[in-house]
Design a protein that fits this description.
Rossmann fold; about 15% strand; binds uridine-5'-diphosphate; single chain; globular; 13 strands; 6-stranded parallel sheet; alpha/beta
Length: about 400
């Protein structure tokens, strides 16, 4: 696996670390547990990292030197060649034990892996996680270079892994992807950690008051994630004692500005005592936060999947989410939570009130959410990918597209 810009071992929830880190780590671990050895190649991003790190049997992380240790994500296109060289050297040194399939994550890894595909005649699977054209449509434009590069990688990937039918449709409609090469493999949730539990116990563990209506927002703080909308909706809820817990930190070019905007909105709406920020938490501790909350809010402007919505559901916490992207497959409106169209805070407040106002209904929604979450598991994701890798090891690699060699 290629995970150039961020490590599966890094803390998700701020900076460049989020769902992709969780995806690569959980998928690699499930593959390894199923007998498929996985090496995850990551750009060395700080001093003192070992060149290889055995995470568990059959799952290692390999750090490849390419460019200065600390680099902004925007500058990484300048070191893709150096990174691909480093991966090629490592693969060559492994001889017969070298992996037989490349699986790239995110467009930057896709570009590097595309070069490796041609250089080493290896089949290439790509998971994009997000697509520039979809982000642009949602009002978050990306540099045109990214969309062009995605198009090139999509044109030459032997398989493109989509999280759901909607992402597959985006790949086909916006990027002319070959439908035959698209494989739908939904991400999963680890039910050993994310399962229902006692709300009172969770609140005591976190030092939160009992009896206070509580919303939780989990994830990176950047405009795309819509925290400002959650704050505006909080001000319009029927119960003025409701609190909002925010777990995560600023992310990306606009992260710090977004946090300032959110803080200004909190002050302007007089909500200072009702919103609490918590630093990013280790993934396996998040279940306590989900269990403590009455509702998990996911007000993203776009979302190819939406792991947070699935994790909350697995903990039995109803989710109120934007009716966009992958979230539409993780929340059943009126059955496991609410899907909200548009970004009007009063409509969001009404949807949250609808779930909060009747404890018996909220419990019913929570139970249905747990049932829905059972449709997703990393072992199934890994099983599907295992079949894809096996097919590709016997298929002829498609003819060179003429780029990246
Ligand atoms: N996450 C975490 N700790 C935090 C905040 C978030 O482990 O403090 C994880 C969260 O559990 C989820 C991932 O980060 O698995 C975010 O994934 P999602 O698909 O919701 O958003 P993305 O980051 O991919 O945009």
């Amino acid at each position: 696996m290629i995970s150039l810009h961020t490590s599966p071992l890094a803390q998700p929830g701020e900076g460049d670390c989020g769902g992709m880190n969780v995806y690569v780590r959980e998928l690699a671990a499930s593959l390894a547990q199923g007998g498929v050895p996985v090496s995850v190649y990551v750009r060395a991003w700080r001093d003192g990292l070992p060149s290889r790190l055995q995470v568990e049997p059959h799952f290692e992380v390999v750090h490849v030197a390419a460019g200065p240790m600390s680099m902004a994500k925007e500058d990484l296109p300048g070191v893709l060649d150096a990174f691909a060289d480093g991966v090629a050297t490592d693969l060559a040194a492994r001889g017969r034990l070298a992996p037989s399939v490349l699986h790239a994550n995110y467009w930057l890894s896709g570009v590097a892996a595309h070069r490796l595909k041609h250089r080493l005649s290896m089949p290439l699977v790509t998971t994009f996680h997000t697509l520039a054209a979809v982000k642009s449509e949602a009002g978050d434009p990306e540099p045109t270079e990214r969309e062009r590069a995605e198009r090139e990688v999509i044109g030459c990937s032997d398989r493109i892994c989509a999280a759901n039918a909607l992402e597959a449709a985006h790949l086909i409609d916006l990027y002319d992807a070959d439908p035959e090469r698209i494989e739908i493999a939904a991400p999963g949730v680890d039910r050993a950690f994310f399962s229902p539990g006692d709300q009172g116990g969770a609140r005591r563990a976190l030092g939160l008051p009992s009896g206070v209506p509580l919303l939780v927002f989990v994830g990176r703080i950047q405009p795309l994630k819509g925290l400002e909308l959650a704050v505006s909706a909080l001000a319009e809820l029927r119960d003025p004692t409701t609190q909002l817990l925010v777990v995560g930190g600023p992310s990306g070019r606009e992260g710090a500005d977004e946090l300032r905007r959110v803080e200004a909105r909190i002050a302007a709406l007089g909500l200072a005592g009702r919103v609490r920020f918590v630093d990013p938490q280790p993934h396996h501790l998040l279940s306590t936060y989900y269990r403590a909350a009455d509702v998990c809010v996911v007000p993203s402007r776009s979302e190819s999947f939406g792991l947070v919505a699935l994790e909350a559901a697995a903990c039995g916490t109803p989710v109120v989410a934007s009716a966009v992207g992958g979230l539409t497959g993780l929340v059943e409106d009126g059955a496991t939570g609410r899907l909200v169209a548009g970004r009007d805070p009063s409509i969001w407040a009404a949807a949250i009130d609808d779930v909060m106002s009747d404890p018996a209904r909220r419990a019913r929604l929570g139970r249905a959410a747990v049932r829905l979450s059972h449709r997703f598991g990393w072992a199934s994701t890994a099983a599907r990918l295992r079949r894809v890798y096996a097919d590709l090891s016997v298929e002829r690699v498609p003819a060179s597209c003429g780029v990246g060699a």
